Each structure stands twice: as C-alpha cells, then as structure tokens.
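Lab meeting, item 3. Inverse folding demo.
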C-alpha cells in the first residue's frame, strides 16, 4: 500500500510539472537585454520572457549592448513560440523559438526552428547557465557545445581573455 501511494504521488507530481509548462504563440514587441524580451500573447497581453538556461552580460557590462543588439537582430518584430520552463520574479522563463533568418518561407506560418538562447550562446553573446535545473540532457549538450565552439572561435564575449560572467559581475 505504501509503495502504491509513493508511485501515485510521483505520478501526480510529474503531471503537475507537465501542466506548469505551457507553449504560447506571440509576437516580440521589445528587447530588454541579451536574455530578456517582451512578447505580446493574444488573450494574455505583454509578457516579460527570460531565455532559459543562458545568462547574457548586463547592459552596463562589457559586451552587454552587443548581446542586446544581437538578440534584437534575431527576434525584434518576429512571431515566436514560447515554451515556458518556469516562472520567476514576475516573468516567464522559457525556450523561445523564431523562424530562422535564412528560412525560405516568408509567411507567418513558417516553422519556428531557431532557439534564441542557443543562438545567443553560439554567437558568443551569452553564457550557458548550468545552474538552473530542468534542462534535458540533449539540450544541455547542445548549449555546452555551442559555448565551447564560441570560445574556440573567440567570438563575442570570448574575444577577451577572461570574460566575467554576469553572476560574478553583479556581485561586485
């Protein structure tokens, strides 16, 4: 009986966590910084969305404005798919997908295949933030590889010798 209760509780907990994750469609209306954007979602209004599993330089930090501009180039005015991972500090934490810039289709129905967080890491405009939990092993490997490649290519924040991660910079 005790084992059945344990299995049932684990099942209910798993169902609750799946229910907390939601997918929304919207339109990017603003870029706050290199890892945060504003998305207008029909019937929900403006949502502040933080890209999951990355941390970009703060706007006043070295490379902060470049990171913001990079995200702006990829996402401003774009239709997006927001896959919520969590909610924290009044904002959605999510994987946000847009149509790839080189996609051959031009209409609103184009598939959204570019993960903005992964793109920011690959372009050297953000760190892969390994601190939060909940990233799938496949996604974790993709983000780690993208960061490694950016370091090897010495692009963006990796063009300097010892870039300071935002979580260390904020503590100064």
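The presenter then showed the designed sequence:
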């Amino acid at each position: 009986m005790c084992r059945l209760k344990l299995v049932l509780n684990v099942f209910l907990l798993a169902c609750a966590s799946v229910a907390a994750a939601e997918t929304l469609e919207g339109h990017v209306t603003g870029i706050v910084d290199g890892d945060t954007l504003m998305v207008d979602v029909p019937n929900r209004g403006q949502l502040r969305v933080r890209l999951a599993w990355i941390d970009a330089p703060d706007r006043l930090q070295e490379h902060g404005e470049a990171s913001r501009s990079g995200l702006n180039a990829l996402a401003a005015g774009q239709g997006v798919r927001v896959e919520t991972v969590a909610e924290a500090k009044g904002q959605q934490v999510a994987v946000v997908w847009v149509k790839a810039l080189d996609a051959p289709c031009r209409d609103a129905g184009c598939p959204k295949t570019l993960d903005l967080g992964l793109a920011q890491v690959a372009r050297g405009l953000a760190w892969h933030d390994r601190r939060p939990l909940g990233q799938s092993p496949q996604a974790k490997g993709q983000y780690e590889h993208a960061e490694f490649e950016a370091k090897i290519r010495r692009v963006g924040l990796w063009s300097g010798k010892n870039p300071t991660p935002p979580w260390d910079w904020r503590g100064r």
